[in-house]
Amino acid sequence: MKIPADKFPALHKAALTFPAIDNHAHPLLREQNRNDFPYEGVISEASGKALKDAPHTLACFRAIPQLAKLLDLPETATWDDVKAARSTCNYQDLCEKSFKDSAIQTMLIDDDLDDHGVIHDIAWHDQFLKDASRRIVRVEVLAEQILRELLEPHLMTDTLNVVPILADFTTALRAALIRHAKDPNVAGFKSIVCYRTGLDVSMYSSQAGLKFSLLDVFKMLQMENKIRLAHKDLNDLVVRTTLDIAGEFQKPVQFHTGLGDSDINLIFSSPARLQQVIKNYSRTIFVLLHSSYPYSREAGYLASVYPNVYLDFGEVFPLVSLQGQKSILHQLLELTPTTKLLWSTDGHYWPENYYLANLQSREVIYEVLGEIIEAGNLTEAETVTIVENVLFHTSNTLYGLGLTPWDGTS
Predict the structure, then answer these.
(1) Is the pTM of this model over 0.85?
(2) pLDDT < 70: residue spans in the chain
(3) CATH homologous superfamily of domain 9-398?
């Protein structure tokens, strides 16, 4: 049963209105590209033919009336009504309405999506925020850019001397990571090795494996004019180099874990597979993204026993049902220190994605902590402190942002 707002008024106010730092987000689409991607992506990680079933999930049924309210549609609106209305409404107004009551003070934005110029730059989003957003650098994309620069001059050759290129790549990657680590506009790094070769990152890459990887990357560049890191030895080298530099400069490294699209190998997306590198890079801060769903308990365990592990619980809002969201948060709280939890929207492409994630996550935070109060395990004052840490203070400290929660008076 839903807990009335007036039962725990201090908790309700904190959960629904306290300023938030969105520690993991992505850019919005430009107006001219607002309809370039299937709208079902707002409520599903599916793609292609699988998207046709997305409107029949509990997550979508819950989102429809919430989106209808945002778009000034009647309560009886259908998914098709929502799609039709949002495809033609004033896009700037939609963006402003989506952020208006969100209380998102700032965002840390990973802008290295395969977007082909269809997204806004990071600074554009600042019009909706109280403080300027910061960048999260996606290291696999950075590595691919460096490899392209090194390999393109050799495209007309029949053979490739990989040894000096590997040395140049490692040197250039370290230099680029250090440059970003020193940039005050960069809050941290992000790895998508989970998508590429899995989270079982090895502490060693063989020279033979690295040479083969580089030759295969070069062949792809020759034949398809693209570069994609899809080889374990090379990917693991990139991750280890990142962890080394990030530890030196105390920049957190975010890892995609768990929930993703069909490009991911779910078995290798469990954060438990990171345990060895977490232990070996003890001075580097790991941020496990997306509640690691469906491996939420494994993530909570890691955050509880390693001082350098933090846990983000974004993306499951709005992609999982209400009961699923509550269950996930309960699971995270079973072991995770509340000072290790970070809030995010994982918003991307559509402003409604931010709207739904913010609305649903705040409601669930209130409900779950309210249930814990009712069980006699916390006082309302203690839950208010937890909310303020989760939404703002922990991210503020972890990423060294130096912000003060906006009080709404200036």
Answers:
(1) yes
(2) 114-115, 408-410
(3) Metal-dependent hydrolases (3.20.20.140)
